[in-house]
Design goal:
single chain; alpha/beta; six-stranded mixed sheet; 11 helices; globular
Length: 245
C-alpha cells in the first residue's frame, strides 16, 4: 500500500513545554490507524498540527510525499485532509444542513457535487436527514457527533482525522459510531483515529501507536497491540491477561 500521510520527527512546543518530542508515524492508503494514550499525551496536539492549526517547531508532515508543514489550514483541507475535533464543535445556532454546507466551504461553487456529498452523508447517518432543518445545538450528543463526522466528510477527504469520536456517548451509540467509522473506511477513506476507548479502537484498526508524554513508545499491528502486555495493563484493563490465566 502507498503511504498517504507521513510524520517525520515531529516536535511541537507550547511556550517552553515540549508537547511532541520528535514522533514519527504513517498512514497508508485505505488504512485505519489509531493513536492511543492517556489525557495529556499529545494526541490532540498531533491532529491539530497535521491540520495546520498549530505551528511546528521541527520535523515534517507529508501528504503524498509532499510537505504540508507551512500550508494554511484551509488549503490542507483542499488537499484532502479533514479533521473532526474532540467535543464535536458543531455550530449550535445553525441547522444540520447549514453545518453540512459549511463542511463543503472549500468547494462551495460546485453545487451538484455538494448535494451528492450530502446525500452520501445522509445515507451514512439517516437520523441527520430527519433532522436536516433542526438547530444543531438541540441535537443529542450522539447526533452531534454524527453531524461533526458528516461535516468532516463534506469536503470529500482522502484521510479523516477523528479525535475522540466516542467521548461521552452511551455504549450503544459508541458501537454505532465505530460501525460507521468502518463504513467510512470501506468507502476508500483512510482514517487516523485518536481514541481513549482502546478496546474499540483496536478492534477496527489495522495498525496503532501508543503515545505517552509526547513520545511514541509502542507501535505495530492492531492485533499485536491487543496482545501486548503493557497495552493490556495500561489501556485494556488487563482483561486479555486475565483470560490467559
Amino acid at each position: 500500500m502507498t503511504t498517504l500521510l507521513k510524520i517525520e520527527n515531529l516536535k511541537i512546543y507550547y511556550d517552553s513545554i515540549e508537547a511532541l518530542k520528535g514522533i514519527s508515524l504513517e498512514v497508508k492508503e485505505g488504512e485505519i490507524v489509531t493513536v492511543l494514550g492517556a489525557n495529556g499525551a499529545g494526541k490532540s496536539t498531533l491532529l491539530r498540527a497535521i491540520s495546520g492549526l498549530l505551528p511546528i517547531h521541527s520535523g515534517k508532515i507529508k501528504l503524498d510525499d509532499q510537505e504540508i508543514n507551512n500550508i494554511k489550514a484551509f488549503k490542507i483541507v483542499m488537499r484532502g485532509i479533514s479533521h473532526v475535533p474532540e467535543g464535536r464543535r458543531v455550530f449550535a445556532t445553525l441547522t444540520v444542513e447549514e453545518n453540512l454546507n459549511l463542511g463543503a466551504y472549500t468547494r462551495r461553487k460546485d453545487k451538484k457535487s455538494i448535494q451528492e456529498s450530502k446525500e452520501r452523508v445522509y445515507d451514512l447517518f439517516p437520523i441527520l436527514k430527519k433532522r436536516y432543518n433542526q438547530l444543531s445545538g438541540t441535537l443529542s450528543g450522539g447526533e452531534q457527533q454524527m453531524l461533526a463526522m458528516g461535516r468532516g466528510l463534506m469536503c470529500t477527504p482522502r484521510i479523516l482525522l477523528l479525535d475522540e469520536p466516542s467521548l461521552g456517548l452511551a455504549p450503544l451509540l459508541v458501537k454505532q459510531i465505530f460501525h460507521i467509522i468502518r463504513e467510512i473506511n470501506n468507502q476508500g477513506i483512510s482514517i487516523l483515529l485518536v481514541e481513549q476507548n482502546a478496546r474499540k479502537a483496536l478492534s477496527i484498526a489495522d495498525r496503532g501507536y501508543v503515545l505517552e508524554t509526547g513520545n511514541i513508545t509502542i507501535n505495530g499491528l492492531a492485533s499485536d497491540l491487543r496482545s501486548n502486555q503493557k497495552v493490556q495493563e495500561a489501556y485494556l484493563g488487563g482483561a486479555a491477561l486475565k483470560k490467559k490465566k
